[in-house]
Every structure is written in structure tokens, then in C-alpha cells.
């Protein structure tokens, strides 16, 4: 009997975990290798739009997420100084009836932990940091820093913005620092004095912003993430500690609502916002990329992880459509059906215009990766 092709997923972040859960569910032979020794409840929140929640339904964690996260009634955009509402985008019940799934904001650690729980333990290995790839033609050999190696027939690079798989396919090149940082803080709402916050608000000035939302169903924890210009970044660091004092300087003169959050935040971290130009290829031979490994973006549409998760779902759909033995056709179909959308989201995120005015977000939120009509690779090439 012919053996099932072995699929290795490098990285168990949000994209890799989604790929692993969906591949396992579809009966493929999959293993996941993650460099971290374990995952902790990192101090960050995340938006899960209806486009992502449809994938969560398929993975089987939609109901639990709906019980875990906050369901904002609106996305409010407000002026930094006056607090005036400059846009109000309906979410809540409207999202559920209009898009067929909820719009959630949730603690990133809680979300990731549900995703990891959806993967059987025996297919996930922690403490496996990939440091070398050997493509031998009929098989790929993966070498890890602990001195071990594994073989696979197909390798999915879900290893984030500094992807080793991307480096192997193209050449080692660091991502671009955009000249912006994001400060992040999560804290109990009980610490916030003097202002009643909406469930989800982005405060805007011309050169910076603060996105604020609750991360639990109980609304006992609130989160902010900023976008603030900063000339340079030491690329050897993925984040550094920040402080209330630094935040007070960066948001001097801003509305009382923003000040109330800064006053309440004990632990603030600061992250570089990184990007890459669209890659000339997403796959070669037996290797394929997804998520931040191929299209890292500024987080200003709150859709970076969503794109990684949609990529994962589309890749699995293409394996099923074409058959796993013809992986190169599956890769071409996958790329043809993901590049335009990922590049558009990358561009809008770069420009930081999303929902600043009362625009219609349907093109983003209504996307259903399982039912969107597939385009053929040749029609994409022909159109180029
Ligand atoms: C400040 C900030 C705020 C953000 N807010 C949002 C938001 O609200 N909504 C949203 O959708 N997105 C947001 N994003 C973007 C989002 O975090 C990323 O787009 C998303 O995490 C990409 O998922 P991924 O699985 O591709 O990569 P990652 O989540 O980076 O996962 C990669 C995984 O691979 C592992 N790995 C790396 N190298 C190796 C190796 N050599 N061997 C083995 N394992 C390896 C890593 O440990 C990690 O677990 C934000 C980003 C930032 C910086």
C-alpha cells in the first residue's frame, strides 16, 4: 500500500496551527514543529472578523470562542482631541446576520490556546527550531538546532516574519522596518478611572493612533495597541519594554479617554511594525509559504493573522481539490487564489485608512475561504 505523503508544518503560530488542525481533520499525515518550548498568555489582543470565524467553525472552536471573546456592537473611530465619532461601523448582531458569523475581539493567548488544543498532542513537537533545509528532490530533510532531523514530502513554512523557509526559497533578507512601532498593554478595566470606554474604538490623529478594545466576554480586561512613528529599530530585538511615561509623551494632549488608559497600564511593551514587498514566489518544489512568512504587514486592518488563517484554509482546500500527490498544481492553485487578496490587505494596512471613515467593509469581512469561487492559475497568469 502506498504511504500517505508526510506534511511538515514549520511553526505553530496562528497560521501554522490552523493549517495543522485542518490538515489533520481532512485525514492528511501532518506533523508540526515549533521552536518555542511552550506558549504563554502574551499581553495582546486580536480581532477575529467573520472571515476568520468561518474557519474557526470548521476547526470546531467557534462556539467556545463566542463564549470567550467580546462582541463589539460597533467599531468606532474617534478624533484624538475632541473624541468626536468620525466613523461607526456596525458589528455585533449586524455582523452575525449580514456575514453569517460573529465579529469578536479576544485575548490573543486565549485564542491561540484554543487553536493549539484543536491539534492532537502527538502531531505537535515543541522545542524544534528549524535551522537548515535540504531539498533532495524526492524528499525534504529538515534540520533542527537540537541536532535532530526529520524528512517530509511537503513542507509548509508558517514560521513567521523571519521565516527560514522563505530564506531557503529566496535568500536570507530581513523584513523592512516601517518606521512605526506598536505599544501593547492589557489590564483590568477596574484600573481605568474617569472614562467609560466603548467595546471597540480606534482613536486617530494624522500621524498616530490607538486601537482599544475589550478582550473577554466578561469585559473585565481591556487592551490597547498603538501605531506611533519612531525613526529606527534594533532588528536584533522582536520587542522591548515600554512604560507609562513613554506613552504619556507619545500621546501628550490626547483626549481624556486615551489618558485614562495610559494611566491604568502597568506593563507596556513596544513592537516594531515590519513589512515585506510582495514575494516573487510563494512556493518551489516541495516547499510552500503562508502567513507572515510570505506577506507580513502593518497590523492596521487587524487582519494579519486572519490572512495567515485564510491562507491555511485555502491551501488545505487546494490539496483536497487537486489531490495531495500533485502538490505543485495545488501550490499554484493556492497562490492564484491568495495573492490578490493578501496584497490588497497588505496595501490597505500599510496606508492605515481602514474604517477611518464610514466605508463598507464587506469585501474583507464577507470573504468565505471555503466557498469563494476558485480562479485557475492560468487565468491569473493570463491577466498579468
Ligand atoms: C503590534 C501588533 C499587533 C497585531 N494585531 C493584530 C490583530 O489585531 N489582528 C490580526 O489579525 N493580526 C494582528 N497582528 C499581526 C499578526 O500577529 C500576524 O500577522 C500573525 O501572527 C501571523 O501569523 P503566522 O502564523 O504567519 O506567524 P506567527 O504568529 O509569527 O507564528 C510563527 C510561529 O513560527 C515559529 N517559528 C519561527 N521560526 C521558527 C523556526 N525556525 N523553527 C520552528 N518554529 C519557528 C514561531 O515561534 C511562531 O510560533 C499584529 C501584529 C503586531 C506586531
UniProtKB/TrEMBL annotation:
Residues 7-345 form the FAD-binding domain. Gene3D superfamilies: FAD/NAD(P)-binding domain. PANTHER family: GERANYLGERANYL DIPHOSPHATE REDUCTASE, MONOOXYGENASE. Keywords: FAD, Flavoprotein, Monooxygenase, Oxidoreductase. Transmembrane segments: none annotated. The keyword Transmembrane helix does not apply. It comes from Herminiimonas contaminans. SUPFAM superfamilies: FAD-linked reductases, C-terminal domain, FAD/NAD(P)-binding domain. Its cofactor is FAD. It holds the Pfam family FAD_binding_3. InterPro entries: FAD-bd, FAD-dep_Monooxygenase_BioMet, FAD/NAD-bd_sf. The keyword Flavoprotein applies. Coiled coil: none annotated. This is FAD-dependent monooxygenase. One of its GO terms (molecular function) is monooxygenase activity.
Amino acid at each position: 500500500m502506498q504511504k500517505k505523503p508526510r506534511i511538515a508544518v514549520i511553526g505553530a503560530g496562528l497560521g501554522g496551527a490552523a493549517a495543522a488542525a485542518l490538515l489533520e481533520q481532512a485525514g492528511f499525515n501532518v506533523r508540526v514543529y515549533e521552536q518555542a518550548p511552550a506558549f504563554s498568555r502574551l499581553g495582546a489582543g486580536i480581532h477575529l472578523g467573520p472571515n476568520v470565524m468561518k474557519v474557526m467553525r470548521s476547526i470546531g472552536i467557534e462556539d467556545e470562542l463566542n463564549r470567550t471573546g467580546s462582541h463589539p456592537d460597533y467599531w468606532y473611530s474617534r478624533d484624538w482631541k475632541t473624541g468626536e465619532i468620525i466613523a461607526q461601523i456596525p458589528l455585533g448582531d449586524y455582523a452575525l446576520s449580514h456575514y453569517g458569523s460573529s465579529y469578536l475581539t479576544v485575548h490573543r493567548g486565549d485564542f491561540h490556546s484554543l487553536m493549539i488544543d484543536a491539534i492532537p498532542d502527538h502531531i505537535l513537537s515543541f522545542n524544534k527550531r528549524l535551522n537548515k533545509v535540504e531539498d533532495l528532490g524526492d524528499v525534504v530533510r529538515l534540520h533542527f538546532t537540537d541536532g535532530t532531523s526529520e524528512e517530509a514530502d511537503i513542507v509548509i513554512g508558517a514560521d513567521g516574519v523571519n521565516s527560514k523557509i522563505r530564506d531557503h526559497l529566496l535568500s536570507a533578507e530581513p523584513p523592512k522596518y516601517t518606521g512605526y512601532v506598536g505599544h501593547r498593554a492589557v489590564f483590568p478595566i477596574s484600573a481605568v478611572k474617569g472614562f467609560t470606554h466603548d467595546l471597540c474604538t480606534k482613536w486617530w490623529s494624522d500621524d498616530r493612533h490607538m486601537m482599544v478594545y475589550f478582550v473577554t466576554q466578561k469585559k473585565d480586561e481591556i487592551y490597547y495597541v498603538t501605531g506611533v512613528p519612531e525613526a529606527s529599530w534594533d532588528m536584533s530585538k522582536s520587542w522591548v519594554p515600554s512604560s507609562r511615561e513613554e506613552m504619556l509623551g507619545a500621546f501628550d494632549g490626547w483626549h481624556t479617554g486615551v489618558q485614562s488608559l495610559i494611566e491604568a497600564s502597568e506593563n507596556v511593551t513596544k513592537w516594531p511594525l515590519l513589512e515585506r514587498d510582495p514575494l516573487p514566489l510563494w512556493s518551489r518544489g516541495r516547499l510552500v509559504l503562508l502567513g507572515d512568512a510570505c506577506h507580513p504587514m502593518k497590523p492596521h486592518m487587524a487582519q494579519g493573522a486572519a490572512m495567515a488563517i485564510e491562507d491555511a484554509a485555502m491551501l488545505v482546500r487546494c490539496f483536497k481539490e487537486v489531490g495531495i500527490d500533485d502538490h505543485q498544481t495545488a501550490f499554484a492553485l493556492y497562490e492564484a487564489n491568495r495573492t490578490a487578496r493578501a496584497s490588497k490587505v497588505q496595501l490597505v494596512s500599510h496606508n492605515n485608512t481602514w474604517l477611518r471613515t464610514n466605508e463598507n467593509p464587506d469585501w474583507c469581512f464577507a470573504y468565505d475561504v471555503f466557498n469563494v469561487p476558485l480562479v485557475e492559475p492560468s487565468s491569473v497568469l493570463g491577466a498579468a
